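Dear colleagues,

For the upcoming journal club I promised to circulate an example of a predicted protein-ligand complex. I picked one with nicotinamide-adenine-dinucleotide because it came up in last month's discussion. The inputs are reproduced below in full, followed by the predicted structure.
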Amino acid sequence: MGLLDNKRALIVGVASNRSIAWGIAQAMHREGAELAFTYQNDKLRERVEKYAAEVNSNITIPCDVSSDTEIQAVFEHLDDYWDGLDILIHSVAFAPKEQLDGEYLENVTREGFLTAHEISSYSFSALGDSAREMMKGRNGSMLTLSYIGAVRAMPNYNVMGVAKASLEANVRYMASSLGPEGIRVNAISAGPIRTLAASGIKGLRDFLTQVENVSPLRRNVTIDEVGNVAAFMCSDYASAVTGEITYVDCGYNSIGMA
Ligand code: NAD
Ligand code: 0WE
């Protein structure tokens, strides 16, 4: 008996075995869900096919979230395999690299701002709207990944923090739109983790060390721990939870001074 028996989940955002989306996929597979994956581009195709196979999935669909037609095509494709969808995982963010360094106002540009918001926030609304039809009448659940930079100014996170604030507001508005259809929408705000998206970041080590030094649990989180909370949030045990941002950060967000 798994938490997610008989549920079908679409997972957007696997790029490596360190991806948060991969931790979520493994937890959901363990809890009995059937999985499908998207991949951003051809470079990632074979890798994602391999990861999918590891969790008994042979559904892998291309999707660059900057394309409306690709987003639409995902659900047309999925419809060929499945008669419905229970879970949507959105684990995608991007800002041009030069935006994630230095002082915010000095570095932010119109284009960097727009890209960050388009890929990291709007894409959740777009995917959510497209997923809506297949989730009809099934008590569906949508989940995205945020970071504390949404609500506190963090060095170098810059315009990504502004985009995550938009994403968190998106969670509340999407929850309000989809609630009458029985669909829940939530976010996990995860502590820093060394993933592909975090690997190029100058000073990531300082973020990790800070959490290790001052968080109540005095350590960092793992993708498996994020995966476990994701499995719960998308399970029927969380049936009254929607519009919520849940921190999975070893308590870091709760302290004032260590
Ligand atoms: P990751 O690099 O493994 O995942 C990021 C994913 O975004 C990749 O799969 C990439 O293909 C995808 N992506 C980027 N642009 C895309 C586009 N145009 N179309 C489709 N896909 C696109 O890194 P991750 O750390 O697992 O990031 C996943 C999510 O978790 C992000 O939203 C990130 O902001 C969030 N998050 C990360 C951390 C951290 O410290 N790693 C902490 C909190 C939240
Ligand atoms: O959300 C993120 C990172 C998202 C991200 C990462 C990249 C790297 C490659 C978005 N866009 C890009 N663009 C690229 O070109 N995190 C929560 C991880 C992260 O990123 C930081 C952090 C932390 C933590 C950036 C600066 C400071 C801390």
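Two points we might discuss: The first strand starts at residue 8 and ends at 12. Residues 93-95, 97, 100, 147, 156-157, 160, 192, 197-198, 200-201, 204, 207 surround 0WE (ligand 2) (CB under 6 Å).

See you all on Thursday,
B. R.
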